[in-house]
Amino acid sequence: MNGRPLSFRESALLGLLGLAGFIGLWSFLSISGIVPRQFLPTPLDVASRFAQLLTSPFAGATLPVHLASSFRRYAYGVLLAAGIGVPLGLLMGWFRLLDDIVTPIFDGLRFIAPIAWVPFAALWFGTGIGGPVMIIFAGAFPPCLINAYRGARFVEPRLIEAGRMLGTPSSRMILEVLLPAAIPSIIAGLRVSAGLGWQSLVGAELIVAAAGVGFLMVQAQGSVQTTTVMVGMIAIGLVGMLIDVLLRQGEAWLRRRRGLEA
User: Fold this and answer.
1) What are the tens digits of pLDDT across the range 180-194?
2) Nearest to 217 by CA among 66, 25, 101
3) CATH: 1.10.3660.10, 3.30.565.10, 1.10.3720.10, 1.10.3210.10. Which one for 32-257?
4) Structure confidence by residue, pLDDT tens digits, 204-251
5) Which of 177, 151, 175, 150 is nearest to 163 (CA)?
6) Are 226 and 180 in contact (CB under 8 A)?
7) CA dist 119 → 23, 126, 132 (Å)
8) Residue 161 and residue 239: Cα distance in Å, rounded?
9) pLDDT tens across 1-32, in order?
10) Cβ neighbours of residue 145 closer than 8 Å, sequence gap 6 or more
């Protein structure tokens, strides 16, 4: 990068200018009629509908209730992915036999897009909570396992050698050597998993859910309510951004605690 680093104030100002330009172009396309207003409502129309949906039900619930339903599924899926993926990745990094057994299966499954699991989820679970959770798990699981595995595999050899010289059993080696050393990699994997899980959730709710922000968008699309569809998209983006900000803060806190950054 050329030039001096931008200050926070300068970066914020440039971000606001970019946002203002985007909203200005959006308004121009809608008001001018270049894009019919039915398919591209103005920012003011969308903002007004957003405020309305905070208190007025649509598709059986208000926007906050739909978001709460979505987030509950999301939390179940991501926690399940982390709860299985991180320990399994650490174990695969330590036990070569387990690595050889799991890797071929995992490599075959991880390239299947989460949305491709939707037909199975619909057949197995219908529109209950199990289907979306399964699809979220499919999206969030691979980064958890891969990053935990890589973190375990790249532990400094001298730490492992020291543990072996002291006769440390495998269980303690995993908990007291591999896990602490792999934490930065695990955290990076969790951030990726969180983003993929949220994207997978929306895809799942478009098809196999009877509530949630994705379901709200499908119902709005069926009745050609473009403002409501766009409100759902904005809500998805805002919640996803909030999740990422919180995870970044948590990552920075853990790195400071471990002395990995100033």
Assistant:
1) 878 888 888 898 999
2) 66
3) 1.10.3720.10
4) 777 766 778 888 888 888 888 899 999 999 998 898 889 888 888 887
5) 177
6) no
7) 38, 10, 11
8) 45
9) 455 677 777 777 888 898 899 989 988 888 88
10) 85, 86, 88, 89, 92, 106, 189
* The three-state (H, E, C) secondary structure of 10-34, written as one string: HHHHHHHHHHHHHHHHHHHHHHHCC
Contact present, 121 and 134 (Cβ < 8 Å) = yes
- Token pair 């970044």 in the structure block, residue: 248
Rounded Cα gap, residues 193 and 85, in angstroms: 10
Rounded to 10 degrees, the C-alpha dihedral 139/144/145/148 comes to 170
What value, to the nearest 5°, has the Cα angle with vertex 218 and ends 215 and 220?
110
Q: Are 166 and 106 in contact (CB under 8 A)?
A: no
What are the residue boundaries of the structural domains of the chain, listed by start? 32-257
Contacts of 250 (CB under 8 A, 6+ apart): 187
| Rg of the chain (C-alpha set) | 23
Residue 253 vs residues 16, 245, 261: alpha-carbon distances, Å: 27, 12, 10
